[in-house]
Amino acid sequence: MLKKRFDNYPKGKQFSSILGDLLGRGIFNVDGHLWKFQRKMASLELSNLSVKSYAFEIVVSEIRSRLIPVFSSFAGKENGVLDLQDVFRRFSFDSICKFSFGLDPGCLKLSLPVSEFAVAFDLASKLSAERALTVSPLIWKMKRFFNLSSEKKLRETIKLVNVLAEELIKHKRNMDVSSHEDLLSRFMANIDDDKFLRDIVISFVLAGRDTIASALTTFFWLLSNHPHVMLAIREESDRIMGSKTQDVASFEQLKEMHYLQAAVHESMRLFPPVQFDSKFCQEDDILPDGTFVAKGTRVTYHPYAMGRMETIWGPDCLEFKPERWIQDGIFKQVNPFKYPVFQAGFRVCLGKEMALVEMKNVALSLIRQFDIQMANPSHTLKFTPGLTATVKNGLPVFVQGINGRD
């Protein structure tokens, strides 16, 4: 699906119709020429050193000016329960909007304000995902045709997202964007179609917001149940950064933290942000194990299930064990087709390295300065249906500052 017969397994019209109203002709909703064009353009931009530096600076600034102050405001507060998932969603939304649009929604300000754009984007994503859960596509298509119920609400929220995005693009058109680093400004140099620009950038917001928040939420839930892993990460960072001098790691320092890299990968093995992915068989095919796949068949692979299979990961597959990624003290990557958390082959995530750097910097900054405990120690993770893995009812935690590190 992702390698040898890649061309025979496109997303397909069925998938595109489900997300078409929200994502339009964005990269995550198209095949063929449009996909190749956006893939090539995005690859050129995201591999640019100045773009990577710009993204890193945004993350560092958001950590220092907002994330740490929010945690500090809750540290030690009696009955001060913080929803970790909500905070990470706010953080990642601010960061990806700055990176994609050059827009600061300010979701993570100390007052934790409500962002009209974020609320509309959330609801549009949720309602779009629910289309896939209906018994028959005909049901939601009829509701859309007659503008009823959830489809009426979806139309209203997408209209709001469109208005906000179109106003921003129009504003950018009236500016000199040649010196701007955000993706929208850079894409404008090659694309004149404002509707197409909207589709491309909305896709980046979807990819860079919910996946990061999901991965960080489950990572800290795992750490709360495996305190020895958190201590090992803290000790590794003290060895490389010192115990008090830095709140945020440099890019070079992050590369030296092999155990942190292993812990993050191990967390996503058990809790991938995108739990499954589907493609549609374009022509009759035979899988490597001999299974016949008829033309038009929907074929799904399931990273969540694959990460828990003994035949792939061994008898300890259900254990959170970062050491499985370490060899002679060095982090060792595995075959991406064994670990398709970022997909693999032609569709491998272009933002993979940037996402990992963001996750590691956020996690490290919090681990070095705070003790984070579940408000309910017996809290188990349950996920709500959606495009990414979202923990039902959030993740309430207590926060305590670490003496001598602030």
From TrEMBL:
Where, in this chain's numbering, is heme bound? Answer: 349
Question: Which InterPro entries does this chain map to?
Answer: Cyt_P450, Cyt_P450_E_grp-I, Cyt_P450_sf
Q: Could you tell me which CDD domains the record lists for this protein?
A: CYP86A (cd11064)
Where does it live in the cell? Membrane
The answer to whether keyword DNA damage applies is no
Return the Gene3D superfamilies for the record: Cytochrome P450
Topology in the lipid bilayer: Single-pass membrane protein
Keywords from the named record: Heme, Iron, Metal-binding, Oxidoreductase
Q: SUPFAM superfamilies from the entry?
A: Cytochrome P450
Q: Which Pfam families match?
A: p450
GO molecular function terms attached to this record: heme binding; iron ion binding; monooxygenase activity; oxidoreductase activity, acting on paired donors, with incorporation or reduction of molecular oxygen
A cellular component term, taken from the record's GO annotations:
membrane
Task: Using the UniProt record, give the first listed, main subcellular location.
Answer: membrane
State its cofactor: heme
Q: Does the keyword Transferase apply?
A: no
Q: Which family does it belong to?
A: Belongs to the cytochrome P450 family.
Q: What is this protein called?
A: Cytochrome P450 94C1-like
Q: Which organism is it from?
A: Olea europaea subsp. europaea
